[in-house]
Amino acid sequence: MFNKEDIKQIESRGSSVASAEAQVELFRKGFPWMKIVAPATPGNGICVLDDEEASRAAEYYENADIAGKCKFVPASGAASRMFKDLFSGLDTLKKGQDVASDSPAARFVANIARFAFYDPELFGTPSDTAESRMKILSRTLTEEGLAYGSKPKGVLKFHKYPDGEVRTAFAEHLVEAQDYMRNPDGSANIVVTISPEHRQLFEDAYKAVKDEYEKRYGVRFNITFTYQDKATDTIAVDADNKPFRTDDGRLLFRPAGHGALIYNLDKISEEVVSIKNIDNVANERFLPVTAKYKKVLLGKAVELRDKIFGYLRELDAVTGEGMSQALPPYIPSLTQRYDDRYMTPEVQNLCNDIEEFLIKELCIRMPYAEDCKTRVRKLREKLDRPIRVCGMVKNQGEPGGGPFIIEEKDGSTSLQILEGAQINKSDPQASAALAAATHFNPVDIVCCLHDYKGNSFNLLDHVDNDAGFISSKSYQGRELKALELPGLWNGSMSDWNTLFVEVPLETFNPVKVVLDLLRPAHQASGL
User: Are residues 85 and 75 part of one domain?
Assistant: First the structure.
């Protein structure tokens, strides 16, 4: 399948031939569909809190003992998709044609003065002419002006305040972090995943506000910029599932989606991590509600952590877990005596409590265990895993994944976030579950990454490699298939203990296209 030059190219990326061959095989056999039991809904997989319960959760977080906190912000890639419609309009104008008056490009030009990056000297006064539209679009997208079409979202100017202050999306994340992710020593740790070619842009954006924000908010920022490892890129194939080759005969590798970021997350040493996408920010007047519900998620996460840790310590206490490993295997009577400890009423009552907790709180219904020792082992395996608490908003038609209850390979059930590509829409049960879904995943996640003994989990041990998917892409006008690794909040966190909590829609303000910046959450006056 691969020649000597191919092998050299593969290995130079830090990957292996075996890995590339396995990826091609995945294209050929595909991924199994997720077996959906039901959508996660309020009272059945989604926890809905009243004001008093929300306040208690936030207070629990503020009083919790936490071994370090960190905010994790995926920010890789350029904002080309954000400006896709503008590029289309610019191409139309370059062909000597005008754009439709109700097109995204025309609407953008007509509202140019409302964007935080508007500069009258650069753009001039907009008018309803093709010439004006050409000028404004070109100076927004190309090196003739701001070159926003090739820059990452994080360094774009998102918001302008009444006092004239202008903030990038990255700056807004700094402001958020100092509020709800501050450590007791006054520091705020932030890990931002970026592309290597964009590092200087982020460094400059950080330098522009660091001193002012640290003084204004009384905080000390610890910023780490990390890259998506090239070794996690996946090989592309053509329509016949053969390795896709560029015009010069080389193999084509593509970034394998946000699932590759599990490697970056795994390197974080802090215990509690908050995850939020770079484009999901709002004007600071929304910070009170944003911070409140982020603290609610943090509180529910550490509360869940403490409950699980308590059960694990109880299991240790009533079973003497760890002792049997030291027993000589050639003394069967002594080994049997220690195995009998799993059959005591005390152990079985605790197992009953744990099973009730798992099904009630986490929608984990355990499969049958053939004996008491196996039951304890399986319950321990379910408890002793990384924890994530995911905010969920009521579905308003936004594209993306949603919360479901699925059946796992071992026969248990669990809460999972599924993308549309993971759902078999020809399966009546799956289609019915999709139609009955009530909530949407805004990527507002809190993670607990340490085990009950204080050690960091190896997150790579908890990835479901069967939870990736295949997407259709193109390269220089040629169609290809791309392999997406199990998504960061999908298959990469499949083997985690998961809790879904409803959060207000006001906490979800993504900027997927540039016109989203005209929404009230991104405007100074809210109009």
Answer: no
